[in-house]
Amino acid sequence: MVEEKLLVPIDQYLKAGIHIGTKFRTKYMDNFIYKSRPDGLYVLNLQKIDERIGIAAKFLSKYEPQDIMIVCRRENGWKPVKAFGKVTGVRVFAGRYPPGILTNKDLEDFIEIKVLVVVDAWPDRNAINDAIKVGVPVVALCDTNNQTNNIDLVIPCNNKGKKALGILFHILATHYLRERGTLPRDKELDVPVDDFTEQ
């Protein structure tokens, strides 16, 4: 693996366990799985994870922050998505997604978005279903056990681990802001990875 081409040094990915999957695999995720470990856990391909984070940052950078919404039902992702929202201005729902806010114009909290990001396609499926109804593209973090139908852009990763989610959203925030031109390419985010990570 050519380290220079990665968005962050390989050891940061490895320490965060961003590549460690589950004991289950779906046919949808086969292309992203590198191997299975002796303990039965599937391991995701680090290069593909890194590549997809870069693709997602470029794709999201075409949208204004207020046109993007991130939904995260899983508690381990609340701190990372809130930190991402804070540094980028993107709208975040950490916890229960309020059903119908994308589809029902009569609701007081109705919002229009142009792209949806979900942390896990299964617990966040209500948001995905609403996005499909209104024709909004869906970007999803997917582990080895996820199905990827109804998802436009898959980011393969450990979407359950605190450290994995912390580093992923830190990298995504950095590169989203760089692509938008609000963070110089030679500068790092002034918010450390720890601020994105549940302890």
Question: What can you tell me about this protein's structure?
Answer:
With 199 residues, the chain is an alpha/beta fold. It has a single domain, classed as Rossmann fold (3-Layer(aba) Sandwich). It has five helices and seven strands, in the order H-E-E-H-E-H-E-E-H-E-E-H. The protein has helices spanning 10-16, 46-60, 78-88, 125-134, 162-180; strands at 33-36, 42-44, 68-72, 91-94, 115-118, 138-142, 153-156. A five-stranded parallel beta sheet has the order 4-3-5-6-7. It has a two-stranded antiparallel ribbon with strand order 1-2. Strand 1 and strand 2 form a beta hairpin. Helix 1 (10-16) packs across helix 5 (162-180), helix 2 (46-60) crosses helix 5 and helix 3 packs parallel to helix 5 (162-180). The chain is globular. The two termini are 30 Å apart.
Could you name the key traits of this structure?
199 residues, Rossmann fold, 5 helices, 31% helix, 7 strands, five-stranded parallel beta sheet, two-stranded antiparallel ribbon, alpha/beta
Spell out the blueprint of helices and strands.
Blueprint lengths: L9 H7 L16 E4 L5 E3 L1 H15 L7 E5 L5 H11 L2 E4 L20 E4 L6 H10 L3 E5 L10 E4 L5 H19 L19
Parallel strand pairs: 3-4, 3-5, 5-6, 6-7
Antiparallel strand pairs: 1-2
Helix pairs in contact: 1-5, 2-5, 3-5
